[in-house]
Specification:
The protein is mainly alpha-helical. The chain contains 14 helices and 2 strands, in the order αααααααββααααααα. Strands 1-2 form a two-stranded antiparallel sheet. A hairpin with a 2-residue loop joins β1 and β2.
Amino acid sequence: MSQFIINRLLQSVIVLIVMSGLVFAGLFMIGDPTSMLISPEATQIEQDALRKALGLDQSLWAQYVQFISHVATGDFGRSFLTGDPTITLILQRLPATLELAITAMLFAIVVGVPLGIWAGLTPHSKLSRGVMSGSMLGVSLPNFWIGLMLVMVFSVWLGVLPASGRGPTTSFGPVTLSITSLEGWRHILLPALTLAVGKAALIMRVTRAATREILPMDYIKYARAKGLSRSRILRVHVLKNVAIPVITITGLEFGNVVAFAVVTETVFSWPGMGKLLIDSIIRLDRPVVVTYLMLMVLFLVLLNLLIDVTYALIDPSAREKARS
């Protein structure tokens, strides 16, 4: 297992280097950040001075090598716009994104797992078929459309929930949370539901498929032959084995929500990392964009590693594969 973890970490270093190079080159080709930072009336001398101050007068390769050398010492650079360390800007927005992602995934699990198991136990009932048809719709609809519809219904027509912002927050050291107050919950409900709809539908479908696959197994038949009650079979045998694919898909989707909740955070003006990324791309704030993407790649690699380890702890056969 330790060799497996070391290999994964080494792979993550390679992925980080390749990704940073691609992003760096892509942003280099898009445009000159100085055009967003200086007045249009500025002279050529002033523009050249700004480019030199930001290190943009060097070649792409020289800029990239300098960036990587600084990253190796823990320095991810400073924002072109504010001059603040990029890592500080991102970590300031991290609690808002994590709060939104965790809330959305909890909604998705609470809805998706029970409905998926129920649909797997009663696959031919009309209500089960209706649930699965609804899950197909949830997987197909884009997040921005779901968000706009929720805003239209609950904010415009009914006027019961706010359409934007995070609401009042409570600080716990460096972490700020909005779910500690009723007003905070009113603000987080719509963006969290927007993200939860598609994730709940996906979890529901995976749970149903796993349940249908497990029910014909010999150990389920043996448990029934022993006279075990249906609730005990469900609790001891079905749920334990359904948990393996559910943990996998939940972990992967949680990573997607944290890394790619850009559209939802933009629609609801949620002050998370996704909105910071969009603002930085628009303003060509290269250090923030590269730092964000590097941190997200590292986060997704570590999350996948955690999922694999958890999977191995639950499933003995997966543990043997990891050892080999």
